[in-house]
Amino acid sequence: MGGGATLGQSVDEIDTPALVIDLDAMERNIASMAKFVHSRGVALRPHAKSHKCSAIAQRQLHAGAAGVCVQKLSEAEALAATGVRDIYISNEVVDSRKLARFAALAGQVKLAIAVDCLLGIERLAAALQLTGHAVDVFVEIDVGQGRCGVPPAAAGALAHQVVAHGMRFAGLQAYHGKAQHLRNCNEREAAIRHSVGLVRAAQASITATGLRCPLVTGGGTGSFVFEAASGVYGELQPGSYVFMDRDYSANEFANRGPRFEHALFVKSQVMSRGAAHAVIDAGHKSHAIDSGMPMVWQRDLDYFNGGDEHGILRVAAAGAPRTLPSLGETVWLVPGHCDPTVNLHDHYVAVRGGLEDGRVESIWAIQARGCSS
Amino acid sequence: MGGGATLGQSVDEIDTPALVIDLDAMERNIASMAKFVHSRGVALRPHAKSHKCSAIAQRQLHAGAAGVCVQKLSEAEALAATGVRDIYISNEVVDSRKLARFAALAGQVKLAIAVDCLLGIERLAAALQLTGHAVDVFVEIDVGQGRCGVPPAAAGALAHQVVAHGMRFAGLQAYHGKAQHLRNCNEREAAIRHSVGLVRAAQASITATGLRCPLVTGGGTGSFVFEAASGVYGELQPGSYVFMDRDYSANEFANRGPRFEHALFVKSQVMSRGAAHAVIDAGHKSHAIDSGMPMVWQRDLDYFNGGDEHGILRVAAAGAPRTLPSLGETVWLVPGHCDPTVNLHDHYVAVRGGLEDGRVESIWAIQARGCSS
């Protein structure tokens, strides 16, 4: 019991709103990505910020993933506590109390972390010295995101500091978040070509200090094909491919690499009807709207923001005129952005056999839900 | 322990990101609203969709509130389980399994619910007949929101159906959500004047069926002054006044009714620094952005969307040039929209004595967090 569902129940019986996984589609997505990285000879370290769930992480690891990425220490703690043994925080932590927790966790699972400043390196080294555990340390460079990370020319000096503080320099963190949703395939390729140039410059600055750069890690669901072909990235970090949200499906992929299917849905139902609109019981407390409204699955209906608890459906302007759904009728949504949508729910209801006739095969706790610290 | 804090801790020691209440400010807000409704001779039934927390509901009840509103059955269940005894679901429920849960809960606490269709009335009556419990039933009319509710002229027929199905017709639910954030005070007043006209028309249609309308309930933090002055509303439902988020504080209030203070904050810290920007560890997984970006509290800095886990701060264009915060420095955010921000956290860290020198007085579970069903 959880997420408004019980094992073995038919899809029709799942309470709404519920976060539902089409297991068949998700497994095909995991297999497609595993096959792709194998064919290109690169490692896969999927980003668990998308699913936040050890049951899904275990499936990715079983399909050959090297480990997982997370963004926050508390996500690492939650996944480590539920059996994930190799976790990379692809993000900076400079708070000493958090670093003490990180250094303690390093005694339980294999850990890695990113740094982008001397203060972070000093505090990380101090924390690890107290516990005596070793971790992998990546230097983050800014390859176009304009958020964290140093300019490429500064990478060598930081890598040198990592080593000078007695830690293992593991390579470069180089993720271009802004490139992921450039709609045109050639634009994404050009953005990653630019990133790769910056990675090479960072590698040169590392070599100039007498160090080698063991690994370059990065890439997302919108760009991993290009990082894989770059010759410099040894590890890819896509996360959303496992679910394929509405925002990513709006990208043009042009048969470059595998295609992924929608595997994450919000089940909702009509709870009020107007003359020209239907109101469903899933608003932006059930699915995140930071990347736009959800898509109404397989119906010519448009979703309009009805607030925290309501969605307003109207017949799509461009679509064939169709009857609005009736009171009580089920409506499936494909969320705009999977990661923060998952963060709104405590459980996945995992369905086998499709959204029409399937049954609940598993109910998975979302262990890293709400883990932002 | 919870929300990254422990009782008695100083504000500086609270882990980030954390959802922090300035208790002194919140208590002044609760007292101001209690004083206002008392002076106008109307009842107050604050909307618990804002705070989702029985500890805060109890403070509102202690200050004289008649009960609380919620939007969803699962919120009612969560608050009932933690001691709230009078709950109104100001929203429709048409699902028979949910209505069975509602009818069961009616044996434990005083409940009310809204209806806007015959099917909902029939199913509600059937569910209550099985448990033998009574509830108050409000007919919702659409007073400008364009979401749920019937046109005023249809209110009488539905009220008649409520009674014909053996239930207690309690009055009209009439909330104009779209009016709440009209920035200009006169525009909000005009919108509510229009709503009041629709309420009167609905009352007339009820009287025409031979019934009386015991109560009109509605109003929000942006409009309650006008519903209070209308002569038709007997009960007000504001929720956000307890916290006063950035979106509501952007309204022009023109000394019409009490002013409220910001009482809800997200504590964050700088975890990366660029030449012209600082990156904090609180993105839209820590505060909701459906109503815009948060305000950086008492600093001339603008917040830019940095994704789920990051916020990007730059010196405000209009503000005096100021130094960006340093690595590790605390930055306080006033969330854009309080209700969905609260939904992202498991605990409130309630601070006494202000954000500079205060101490953690209480840590409150947010019992109705994630309750969307």
How would you describe what is shown here?
The structure is a homodimer of 373-residue chains. Chain A is α/β, with parallel strands linked by helices and 373 residues long. Chain A has 2 domains: 11-19 and 260-365, Lyase, Ornithine Decarboxylase, Chain A, domain 1, CATH 2.40.37; 24-245, TIM Barrel. The first copy, chain A, contains 11 helices and 17 strands. In chain A, strands 1, 10, 11, 12, 13, 14, 15, 16 and 17 form a 9-stranded mixed beta sheet that branches. In chain A, helix 4 packs across helix 5 (118-131) and helix 6 crosses helix 7 (185-207). Chain A is globular and about 70 Å long. The model of chain A has no long low-confidence stretch (mean pLDDT 97). Chains A and B meet through strand 10 of A and strand 10 of B.
Q: Give the oligomer, counting copies of the same chain as homo and different chains as hetero.
A: homodimer
How many individual domains of chain A? Answer: 2
The CATH class label of the largest domain in chain A is Alpha Beta
> What distance separates the N and C termini of chain A?
28 Å
What is the overall shape of chain A?
A: globular
List the keywords:
Lyase, Ornithine Decarboxylase, Chain A, domain 1; 373 residues; 29% helix; 11 helices; homodimer; 8-stranded parallel β-sheet; alpha/beta; TIM Barrel; globular; 9-stranded mixed β-sheet; 2 domains
Brief write-up:
The structure is a homodimer of 373-residue chains. With 373 residues, chain A is α/β, with parallel strands linked by helices. The first copy, chain A, has 11 helices and 17 strands.
